[in-house]
Design goal:
This protein is α+β, with helices and mostly antiparallel strands and 369 residues long. The protein folds into 2 domains: 126 residues, 2-Layer Sandwich (Beta-Lactamase); 163 residues, 2-Layer Sandwich (Beta-Lactamase). The strands form 3 sheets. The protein has a 6-stranded antiparallel beta sheet. It has a 5-stranded antiparallel beta sheet with strand order 2-1-5-4-3, sandwiched between helices. Helix 6 runs antiparallel to helix 7 and helix 6 runs parallel beside helix 9. The C terminus is likely disordered.
């Protein structure tokens, strides 16, 4: 110890350290000093959700030392975002197989890949971690060029996945609140129509426009039961060129079931039918219920975004509202017996169509429903 204290070199080092502290000089290298002295420029405030996710993913990629980053999660959230990617990484066969595997195992996996990046390079390694929000699953993919992932990277990826999940929870809550506001507005406007509407045809047309615009349906149809037990297509948005304006419920599988059972029915990817257009990929049929019973049917359809269980539940509520609107509204004029109508693709008169519907006969049965 004494020799160490008497060592001139050690004393010189202590004196040098004291001098540096006194002069408040930095002990770091010039390169680090320049980096620490560089002014920090933060990203501007994001104006849209896409811009916000671009900032988040760029920051996550920096933290995880990824060259690219992407995630995707299924419905009802239905969201996917990417950073520095020119193609969909989930279309890569190796990534697809890994996503299917982690959906069952809930594990983190690393796979080799050849995924083009937005900067022109190709990522050769991918780390994939599951995203789980309630009953919705997805995956987050981190990509690197020229190097693989180690155990420490797995811990970092888990942390980033937790942050992404937190943001998705918030996005889901925001979307749910927005949907609830639109639903409340739609129900309020339906109540206004029921109270203040005077012409049934105008009320039904307004109801179709309201449901299409506020609740994001691509198809809205209102079918009312007439005195002969057939269904009249009383209003629709958009107006279709379908020849069928009067339908015999017993010839169309879901229509009869909904009328008799009073339950909402969903048709996923329905086959060709004469009462819905071809572009409808997902259809909900709900009864128009009133205190006196079922008075008709509400048909809702979407072309791309599929329905979820909450949409089916809401359709039943909407059916009750519209059913009361039909009962309280002014009675519409029924088909004139001398007015030609289209019945199952054939020109007929209303009286003939109604009588044939009530008798159970059909010259052109429709097996597809």
């Amino acid at each position: 110890m004494e020799s160490f204290l008497k060592d001139a070199k050690a004393a010189k080092s202590f004196r040098a350290a004291g001098d540096r502290i006194f002069r408040q000089e930095s002990a770091t290298s010039p390169v680090v000093a320049r980096m620490l002295g560089t002014p920090v420029v933060l990203s501007s405030e994001a104006q849209t959700d896409d811009e916000a996710w671009a900032v988040r993913l760029a920051a996550f990629a920096t933290l995880g030392q990824y060259d690219a980053l992407a995630f995707a999660i299924g419905e009802p959230i239905g969201l996917s975002r990417a950073y520095n990617l020119s193609t969909d990484p989930f279309a890569e066969p190796a990534v697809q197989a890994a996503v299917e595997d982690i959906a069952r195992s809930r594990a983190i996996v690393q796979v080799r890949s050849a995924i083009p990046l937005g900067d022109g390079r190709t990522a050769g390694a991918a780390i994939i971690v599951p995203l789980i929000i309630a009953d919705t699953t997805g995956a987050l993919v981190g990509l690197r060029v020229g190097r693989t992932f180690a155990a420490a990277d797995m811990l970092a990826t888990m942390g980033i996945a937790e942050l992404v999940t937190l943001e998705l929870h918030r996005a889901r809550a925001t979307r749910r609140e927005s949907a609830e506001r639109r639903q409340a507005l739609a129900l309020y406007e339906l109540g206004r129509l029921s109270l203040f509407g005077t012409d049934q045809a105008d009320m039904l047309a307004s109801a179709c426009v309201l449901l299409r615009d506020e609740l994001e349906h691509d198809l809205v149809q209102l079918w009312l039961l007439n005195e002969h037990g057939a269904l009249d297509r009383s209003a629709a948005r958009p107006e279709t060129d379908l020849p069928l304006r009067i339908a015999r419920p017993f010839e169309h599988e879901p229509l009869a079931d909904v009328l008799t059972g009073g339950e909402t029915v969903r048709l996923r990817h329905p086959s060709a039918r004469s009462w819905i257009p071809d572009h409808a990929a997902d259809v909900i049929v709900a009864p128009l219920s009133s205190t006196s019973g079922v008075v008709g049917l509400l048909v809702l359809g979407r072309s791309r975004e599929p329905y979820v269980q909450s949409d089916e539940d809401l359709a039943g509520v909407l059916g009750s509202f519209v059913g009361q609107l039909v009962v309280r509204g002014a009675a519409g004029r029924g088909p004139n017996e001398d007015e030609p109508v289209e019945w199952e693709g054939e020109t007929a008169y209303a009286a003939e169509a109604m009588s044939s519907g009530s008798s159970g006969g059909s010259d052109m049965p429709e097996s597809s429903g």
